[in-house]
Amino acid sequence: MTTTVPDTFLQLRSEVTADGSELRLSLARVPTPKPGDGEVLVRVRATPINPSDLGLLVGPADLEAAKVSGSGEAAVLSAPIPPSLRRAVAARAGAALPVGNEGAGEVVAAGASAAAQALLGRTVAILGGEMYAEYRCVRAADALLLPEGTDPRDGASCFVNPLTALGMVETMKLEGHSGLVHTAAASNLGQMLNRICLEDGVPLVNIVRSPAQAKILKDQGAKIVCDSSQPDFMESLVAALTETGATLGFDATGGGKLAGQILTGMEVAANARSPGGFSRYGSTTHKQVYIYGGLDTGPTELNRAFGMAWGLGGWLLTPFLIRIGKEAADRLRARVVAGLKTTFASGYTTEVSLTDLLTPEAVRACNRKATGEKFLVRP
Amino acid sequence: MTTTVPDTFLQLRSEVTADGSELRLSLARVPTPKPGDGEVLVRVRATPINPSDLGLLVGPADLEAAKVSGSGEAAVLSAPIPPSLRRAVAARAGAALPVGNEGAGEVVAAGASAAAQALLGRTVAILGGEMYAEYRCVRAADALLLPEGTDPRDGASCFVNPLTALGMVETMKLEGHSGLVHTAAASNLGQMLNRICLEDGVPLVNIVRSPAQAKILKDQGAKIVCDSSQPDFMESLVAALTETGATLGFDATGGGKLAGQILTGMEVAANARSPGGFSRYGSTTHKQVYIYGGLDTGPTELNRAFGMAWGLGGWLLTPFLIRIGKEAADRLRARVVAGLKTTFASGYTTEVSLTDLLTPEAVRACNRKATGEKFLVRP
Questions:
Q1: What are the pLDDT digits (tens) for A106-118?
Q2: CA separation (Å) from A256 to A189, A302, B303?
Q3: How far is it, in rounded angstroms, from Cα A367 to Cα A14?
Q4: Which residues sit opposite A14 in a β-bridge?
Q5: What is the distance between the alpha carbons of residues A165 and A328, in angstroms, rounded to a whole number?
């Protein structure tokens, strides 16, 4: 070890009580692990709160009723879980789980292997949970080496958003589609996807929820933006789908009617593009929407006015990366590192420490899921 | 030609008016075609009204407001289409379409080819639409020869229900599942699927909507029946899914919460079968439900309490048969013919002529989709 590392460090934990009635956030003081041969210990400097962290962080708790006991390191934030939602968290009840999908920081200790030693003193991006903590020990092979001089803030979001956005384009190619639809399109991820699609010449229909969000994307060169807050939303969506022929959608909202509206729009567009020959079962064009987030935790409602050639499903980054294999995944990672300050740049509106996070105001703000707001934790 | 065939015949037509406001059922008198070389002309004797015929037959029309003008061959039944549902039928507006997926009857004329000539005078089952008619000309290769002496009534439903039921089991094998869930399980198709699964040793969870339906299936040896009208439905479903490990469902209802309840039950069962290790994204077990019917035309509602490894989609017989190829499809057809009076027997509660069908009472009864009721048209 070349740097003095404390014996213990702070790690944020999220616990659903054994009876499922309450969620508790607290800081645990845990022993600092000594890296094994092929491992490195990273001093976590910057770790984002992504929408995909929120399920584990706050789950279905009612944060409007959150309260805090204790203070500083000993603070405990608690919030009730509505009875109807307890079944969904039964499997994690009673366990205090670490949180935080990804982050970046310096390698302060390394195992004996050459791969681990090569990272000592360098800034790396890491993925794998437990990032809302002062330290995180990972396999050297899983650390993404960032160029010398990279600010950990710039490397904090190397994986989830960039690889998800790239994964959407790769999925489009793998499954034989030729254009994409994306919801919550003004998000950090959405802006990234827009930049990728502009670079790669992929037709992209951006769906946003307000004129302000539409402006964000148009200012960034987005070619097609449909605003679901407008009365002519369905007409503009059908026109966009007819123009692009996009038959694959990625929906970050999950709840509500949006996924079904996209499928309906695709069906109308498919019939418009292949006129004549009514089929009682709808078009033969396969229309697919993947739900990859749950910004709207309400039920998904499908009117099924889109024939029989359709699919809806969950989409998750890790199974996708396994599906494409290590070589293809490494190619995507290299593209991210090369575009860290351009195509894959993230913006943060608020920076918080671990203790800052344990307040009702902070968790409510994180959970608000408003496009444009994004938290960065600086442990 | 060896039989006297009239120059014209009656064919039922379903038309959505050009403005989408009204559905009209009528009988057209059309010229009898002369079979081409490889074709045969079938005198249709029996053709069922399957749930899959109803979309084309009556679409989203409000049959409570149906009325009839004219009488006999000249009768026209008309019913309004609610404005909110007109988009779904826009593609067929203005066309008077023939209806009826399948049927059986005698070959009364045949083209010059040996295959066509071999069928002359024989009873065949046929698929391909336009069956609610006195005659239907089809390719000889598409006619399924029935054993000598088969009553057309017994051969009327050779395709849709039998091949759909067999297709469910084949899809299960193709997609790597090891058990099935089926809704509306006391239907003709459901009883058939139950017999197939008993024969083949496939674990099957039958979901029904009443104690009377549960009794129908249990009397036929069904091992697992879950009744969605009972207060302990979810508990019994989870227990059944845990016991069978079934991860593929076929849902005939489409609307409502049932598809989501099945996915939720599969998720709870997957976690129960692989205890330990909570994952924020749910189990890694892929859970799939295919909607193959629309008995409930209301929206599909998913609470998404089933992690991220799931899919929902449409399932249709014809694309499935194309997917498995001719050889495999012929194997399934041969199994149907061999079991026409046993495994694949259908029951009908009402027989109607073509003119009988053009009354508000008859179309409403056909559209009621009550398990146990089934109409057979005798043109």
A1: 999 999 999 999 9
A2: 21, 8, 10
A3: 14
A4: A25, A97
A5: 15
In B, minimum Cα distance to A306 occurs at B88
Minimum Cα–Cα distance from A292: chain B residue:
B308
Sequence-separated (6 or more) residues with CB below 8 Å from residue B144: B124, B125, B126, B127, B155, B158, B159, B333, B336, B337
The rounded Cα A49 to chain-centroid distance in angstroms is 9
**Helix, strand, or coil (residue A189):** helix
Residue range B104-114, pLDDT digits in tens: 999 999 999 99
Nearest to B116 by CA among B136, B139, B137: B139
Q: How confident is the model at residue B1 (pLDDT cuts 50, 70, 90)?
A: very low
Cβ–Cβ of A314/B302 closer than 8 Å? no
Of B222-236, B264-278, B319-333, where does mean pLDDT reach its minimum? B264-278
Structural domains of chain B sorted by starting position, each given as residue range(s) with its CATH number in brackets: 8-157+346-377 (3.90.180.10), 160-320 (3.40.50.720)
Within chain B, strands assigned E span: 8-16, 22-31, 39-49, 67-69, 76-80, 96-98, 102-110, 123-127, 135-139, 144-145, 180-182, 204-208, 224-227, 248-251, 254-256, 287-291, 296-302, 310-314, 350-352, 375-377
Pick the residue from chain B with its C-alpha nearest to A92: B278
The two three-digit tokens of residue B186, written as one number: 């006391």
What is the pTM for the complete model shown?
Answer: 0.87
Of B56, B310, B319, the CB nearest to A314: B310
Give residue-wise pLDDT tens across range B24-34: 999 999 999 99
The ranges of chain A with pLDDT < 50 are 1
DSSP letter at A349? S
Q: Which residues on A lie below 8 Å from B316 (Cβ)?
A: 281, 308-309
For A336-360, b/e burial (b = at least 16 CB within 10 A) is: bbebbeebbebebeeebebbebbbb
